Amino acid sequence: MKAFTVHTGVAAPLLRRNIDTDAIIPSREMKRVSKQGLGEGLFAGWRYTLPGGREQNPSFVLNRPEYRNTSILLSGDNFGCGSSREHAVWALAEYGIRAVIASGFGAIFHTNCIRNGILPVCLEEEVIRDLAERVQEDPQNNLVEIDLNRCRIVCGDSELEFALEEGARHMLLNGLDPIALTLQQRKLIDQFENTRRKKHAWAFAPFEDCVEGVLP
Amino acid sequence: MTTPGAISGATTLFDKLWSEHAVCELDNGETLLYLDRVFLHERTGSIALQSLHAAGYGVRDARKVFCTMDHIVDTFPGRGDATLMPSGTDFITATRNETRAANIRLFDVDDPNQGIVHVISPEQGLVLPGLTLVCPDSHTCTQGAIGALAWGIGSSEAEHAMATGTLRVRKPKNMRVVIDGALQAGVTAKDLVLNLIARFGANGGAGYAVEFAGSTVRDLEVEARFTLCNMAVEFSAFTAVIAPDEKVEAYFHGRDFAPKGEHWRDAVEHWRSLHSDEAARFDRELHVDASTIQPAVTWGTSPEQVVSIGESIPYPDTFAEDHRRESAQRALAYQDLAPGKHIADISVDAAFIGSCTNSRLSDLQAAAAVVKGRSIAPGVRGVVVPGSRRVKKAAEQEGLDQIFTDAGFEWRDSGCSMCFYAGGETFGAHQRVISTTNRNFEGRQGPNTRTHLASPATVAASAIAGSFISAEMLAESESLAS
After folding, report:
1. DSSP characters for B368-400?
2. How far are the Cα atoms of A135, A154, A176 from residue A150, in angstroms, in the given order?
């Protein structure tokens, strides 16, 4: 997984609450059995003039020239709510988004971000509005720097502190593979499972007598 | 890393389920939780399995993993692998190949037990009280209704779940929503949950696992409890749970994969311990008086934008907070509605009955009771999609399919269908749809389609009247007219 340490980039404001994963990537844009090829469908309903089309809607923030090469999104509360589709995060990553700063995140989306090297930063709504105002003056020059080592955001002369749970921070900083980490605990998992099987055989019973994949 | 000890003192149902599955506390504040079941579907499961294999990992115990075709599969009668969505067949084929290679039990397109994951899992007893279950689908919270710890995850987490039989999870806080009072005639679990979200906000449950409790919840039948828990994710909760009771025991007795004989007795004994202790403390507690709730319908593009059927579209200025005002204005523009307009004066173009929220036999019975002997209003298109093939069969044995088709509804095969646009099917741009589904987001049911969420009875009545109306009001208006 891609690590996140320090990133500096153009930030674009999309300051509304409850931006759901259907809006981040509509179902119709999830065309292939793949994590790739999704960047084009990012925010398709807002970004293009027609459904399924590719003619850019010039008023959408990411299409405006001053926001070219955006890599940080500024948004409202409950960003990424709704459907669990990880395609939303894959689309953001492929488009080039490295961090989303919002006042809250959908729980599944938040974990999906961590698993894909995108940093979800939680800040107060007012603080994000102030940051957006500063950025808007000159987006290409008023770049935002996010340092996950120090948990600091710097834009011009303002410096903001943020918090991220230690587990998520550690994963992101080191670009760790959680499956490999957990498999180190395999013995403990086996032990737990054996104890559970003895105590709650009913929870295993329907599957104990069957050959793999062939249920009675 | 520490091994979790026995929890002492009064505990909540959620804490009991959590601690029973805690393999260990990780040193980063997360818990390694043991998983009893994993469910997949063809949209996210196919990618998760492919990616897992590409990374060189296997499935730890394929016997505990199940997969269904529900999201993309067509619901037209006589369907095969072809879908309206151009590349939908690729998802179906990939899922079939990947599950076969991994020895995972698949409920395929033509399987008599196929259906929507959150309908077929309890229907077959694959989920049970006291178990953990995850699925790369946000509405997995539905299955908490029977006292399981079930929650939705992303594809990467599904890979982790299959490879390790566990997940690394940060424990959410405890919330209890106590619902008391008798529901008025014609008011359902759907109206309850829409009212809850309207009152406390679409992010009202963020950071919490929610236990639904109170006399109203106890009085709900098991299928209605699924509806209540289904929309916990629309409340932004981690998941929802309801303590299992004798209704839940009766529900599971004799199901295909429910424990039998001695195992059944052990299971029931354990299930009876699965409730919050009287003195258990919750981080937050909400109270709802169910007796005042009316049949509800959403007017906007967030599940918190709700009115009762007899009311009018609100004026954005009446919202105190800036963000609610802004989102109301945007929603009214998208929905093409004027503030102050009476809900009963808004005509509908289409009606959809289905989805993991409201597609079980009792939902179809409630809708059919309204539809029986009546006809859909001219120009309105109505579609009924049973949640599973078993529900479909049971409904047909009762003659419900005939009632629906006589009234002018289409009667379909099972799947998620027009809850969203994944299969490529939609009622069309600018069509106003009254729907028993769970999300009224912009574009959810297709580009520029306008969705209004309501209960099966309200959707059925509105299809008949051609405008938003409850079943009770429809009956009243007819008796006045005759």
Report:
1. HHHHTT--PPTT-EEEE--SBHHHHHHHHHTTH
2. 21, 11, 19
Alpha carbon of A216: minimum distance to chain B alpha carbons (Å): 9
Q: Which chain A residues are within 8 Å of B447, Cβ to Cβ?
A: 26, 28, 45, 51-52
Tokens of A83: 């459907």
pLDDT at B27 over 90: no
Q: Using a CB–CB cutoff of 8 Å, tell me whether A187 touches chain B.
A: no
Q: In chain B, which residues have their Cβ closer than 8 Å to the Cβ of A116? A: 156
DSSP 8-state code for residue A165: -
Stated length of chain B: 482
Domain ranges of chain B: 36-166, 297-481
> Which class in CATH covers the domain with range B36-166?
alpha beta
* CATH fit for domain B297-481, picks 3.30.499.10, 3.40.50.10490, 3.40.50.300, 3.90.1310.10: 3.30.499.10
B34-75: pLDDT as tens digits: 999 999 999 999 999 999 999 999 999 999 999 999 999 999
Cα(B357)–Cα(B387) distance, rounded to whole angstroms?
Answer: 9
Q: Does A210 touch chain B (CB under 8 A)?
A: yes
Question: Which domains can be identified in chain A, with CATH numbers?
Answer: 6-176 (3.20.19.10), 183-208 (no CATH)
**Reported confidence tier of residue B1, pLDDT bands at 50, 70, 90:** very low
Identify the pLDDT of residue B224.
98
Query: So what's the ipTM on this one?
Result: 0.94
Residues of chain B contacting A198 with CB distance shorter than 8 Å: none
The model's pLDDT over A79-112, given as tens digits with 9 standing for 90+, comes to 999 999 999 999 999 999 999 999 999 999 999 9
Residues 6+ positions from B263 with CB-CB distance below 8 Å: A201, A202, A205
Confidence (pTM): 0.96
Q: What is the mean pLDDT of chain B?
A: 96
Helices (H), B87-148: 88-101, 117-123
Contact of A22 with B439, CB cutoff 8 Å: yes
Q: Tell whether A20 lies on the interface with B, counting CB pairs under 8 A.
A: yes
> Angle, nearest 10°, between helix axes B361-371 and B222-230?
100
**Torsional class of B245: left (φ above 0), alpha (ψ -120 to 50), beta (otherwise):** beta
